[in-house]
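Justification of resources, computational component.

The compute hours requested in this renewal are based largely on the per-chain cost of generating structure records like the one below. Each record pairs the submitted sequence with a full structure-token output. That output is archived, and it is also reused by downstream analysis tasks.
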Amino acid sequence: MRSFFLNWQDPETRRWLPVAKLINQSGYYIFGYTRGSQVSGNFLPFGRMNDVSSLYISNDLFPIFANRVMNEKRPEYARYVRWSGLDRESDPLGLMARIGGMRATDALHVSPVPVKSRDGRYRSVFFVHGISHLTQESADRVTALEPGEVLCPMLDIQNPHDGNAVCLRTQNPAVIIGYCPRFVAPDLRYLFESAKIAPRLKVLQVNRDAPSQFKLLCEAVSSWPENFVPCNSEEHQLISNVAVEDALKTVSTAKPFQRAAG
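The structure output for this chain reads:
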């Protein structure tokens, strides 16, 4: 099973909210709205999926996500795969989640839900945010980074825009080089406080030919505390009270798109 959140930016407050969850399980795609979709009165449901209390099940990827999957025939596809640290055989969902599935026509961002690795650890791979706002000294330091270089996370508790913000700096010399993405930061803050082995962050690759949002690919690795659930805030919870497993039991193969009322 793999899960992803669809994050939406409120046009007035500029706040990012997890508004829906996509689950890929047992050969089906399950879509459900989260409680984050109820935070802002500006949010509107997507297309035919207008009942926020229901789960939607499909054999095919829902259009709101399918439209964000990059076509392998596009000339820039190989560049994005390389920048993302993936290979051409990687599945489309994996690439979409790594680069965020952003489009110029809307304010939506796709983020993956980390899963426990085979060795029982937490692992998250992400592009560092905020590089375009760095000083020239910091921008030069980003360009000079090498794969494997260890980064130091700093909890930015006084950040006026995000109380969970995690800033990143180099070791020697100490230079700020950006921020962890919003979808990663809350989990990292929890792991810093609860994990037996604190998260370690390192550079995976520096894409010197990429735009700033894809320039620096990093990895966070930590032990997985007992009872830890990633992306587990109130806003991330599904509105529907129908369990995914129960919804799948009602699936009829004769229908490509179904709704399980909550």
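The domain at 116-229 is CATH 3.30.70.2330 (Alpha-Beta Plaits). The chain has six helices and twelve strands.
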